[in-house]
Amino acid sequence: MDMLLNKWVVCGCVFLAFVLPVLFWRRDDFGAIREHGASWLALPPLYRILWGVTDVFEYPIGLPLTRLFESRRVCYEKWILASNLPLTPARVFTLQGLLLMGGVAAGALLLFVPEIKIFVGIGFMAAFGFVGWIYPPLVLEKYVEWRQTEITRALPFAIDLIGSAMRSGLEFGAAMRYFEGLKMPGPLTEEFGKVLQQIELGKTRTEAISDMARRVQVEAFTSFAGVVAYGAEIGASISETLQIHGEELRRARFHLAERKAARAPSLMILPMAVFIMPAVFIIIITPVVLKMKASGMGGH
Predict the structure, then answer these.
(1) With contact defined as beta carbons under 8 Å apart, do 61 and 98 qualify?
(2) What are the chain's domains?
(3) Whole-number pLDDT of residue 32
(4) Contact of 82 with 148, CB cutoff 8 Å
(5) pLDDT tens digits, one per residue of 25-53
(6) E-assigned strand segments in 103-258
(7) What are the φ/ψ torsions at residue 159 (nearest 5 degrees)?
(8) Within 13 Å of residue 294, how many CA atoms lie on the same side as its CB?
(9) What is the mean pLDDT of residues 154-172?
């Protein structure tokens, strides 16, 4: 018995000494992509809390999953580019895999509760695992949507300010630097700062603006980049064009708000039918039922 136990101990030590280092080996070029300007504090809390764990398992878990789910990997790359977060698709997949296994393990613990039947425990395992798998990309997608909304909201004012600075005598690059120098909080200021850095490193104005449009993936800014590129191509002043473009963006935002307001009544139908109408019926019908019961009892 002791010899068998010693044998298993030796096998376990060999596994820890040789297999785990190979399993957790990570290439130097397969780390987190920390682009310049990416903010650690901007990471969603889920990614920030589990950063160390995902850093260990990124290569053994995340990399195979990126090869297995190619279309999702491309989607995650677009989201990461738009989010400006220090992430990789492999890290997102790693977090998905870890939460999936954690959810399944949490559901499996319920199998040891005598009052819970086996099929109920299996259902909890599937439900917890499913939630763990879909939650990390959902958090990333919501952050990207928030960032794009903030950029869309701040863009008309930024265009007006840049256009006003150009009409005062500044050229486009100096007007952008003036806007960025105001340090107004928001992702648009960060993106303009990256544009200015790229121009200082040798990129042309059109290339830097086009790269920003590719990063933020906002239709309104893509049209703004087209205006800037067209002005640079023909050598004309774009200050008046920016003023007109800013007005169009404000009108587009106003029309979008009108459409959302028009949808509000239809969106309220379901909550009213589920929550409000039953309460109203209970308030109306309960006194009638009580009176009917009281009159019936009095008759007997």
Answers:
(1) yes
(2) 150-254 (1.20.81)
(3) 41
(4) yes
(5) 444 444 444 443 446 778 888 898 888 88
(6) none
(7) -65, -40
(8) 6
(9) 83
For residue 244 the two structure tokens come to 């007109």
Q: What is the DSSP string of 106-129?
A: HHHHGGG-TTS-HHHHHHHHHHHH
Instruction: Give the rounded percent of residues in the chain with a pLDDT score beyond 90.
Output: 15
In whole angstroms, give the CA distance from residue 90 to residue 94: 6
Q: What length is written for the chain?
A: 300
Nearest to 101 by CA among 153, 142, 60: 60
The answer to whether residue 258 scores a pLDDT higher than 70 is yes
pLDDT tens profile 84-119: 888 899 999 999 999 999 888 888 887 777 777 787
CB–CB of 246/156 below 8 Å?
yes
pLDDT digits (tens, 9 = 90+) for 270-289: 777 777 878 888 888 888 88
* Rounded CA separation 116/93 (Å): 32
DSSP 16: I
CA distance 259 to 270: 19
Neighbours of 131 (CB within 10 A): 13
How many angstroms from the chain centroid is the CA of residue 243?
Answer: 32
| Tokens found for residue 183 | 């340090």
Burial of 65 (0-12, 13-18, 19+ CB in 10 A): middle
Q: What is the mean pLDDT of the chain?
A: 78
Which tokens go with 26? Answer: 């990570």
| Over residues 189-195, mean pLDDT | 87
Give the span between the Cα atoms of 243 and 15, in whole angstroms.
68
